[in-house]
# Entry
Amino acid sequence: MDTTGPATLHENEPHHNDLAHRLNWLRAGVLGANDGIVSVAAIVVGVAGATTDTGAILLAGAAGVVGGAISMSLGEYVSVSSQKDSQHALIEKERRELQEQPEEELEELAAIYQGKGLSPATARTVAKELTAHDALGAHLSAELNIDETDIVSPWHAAFASALAFLIGAILPMLAILLPPENIRIPLTFVAVLVALAATGAVGAWIGGGSKLKAAIRVVIGGAAALVATFAIGSALGASGIV
# Structure
């Protein structure tokens, strides 16, 4: 006889919200790595267009890696902090409304479920049962699509963004520094564009879009950045300014 209770059925299957949350983090990681690839590649290719001095290329690339990672991390921290503050404000507002006007909030919750297709009687029953179980959680979910226990940490987001950027930046640094001088620039172009095609395809796969179109878009954008910075570096090098 199977004694498995309802609470344990499909316990190993990912819940939709949890899966969506993980996919969002993965997508952000792919985009962060993509930024690291393009930003650092553009810097080192530009410098390599002006000089063959490996020390100068290394210095510029290292500065780009550190500055880019900090910039990405700071931007993500500020963005997520603002989102977190907004979510906390909404949660406190909802908590206060439940304390001050519980009947109005119950009617509001019932109206939400009625608007989703339930009959008035069923909607009110659902609202009452959810309110009795977890009034704040029920209202946050139905009205604002917020889970009080699942608010992103700004520090986690900042660290993840910086790490993704650093991982992406490794490729152009290795591609420009390791090969001989006569092939370092074309090899960097090839390595970077192949990597961008891969990150573009992965990002599209996560979002359910066309992998080919996404890869083409990001490759064109990356190629434009590399060509532009290499042309500027070559012009400055030929002019004798640097």
Q: What stands out?
A: The chain has a mean pLDDT of 85.
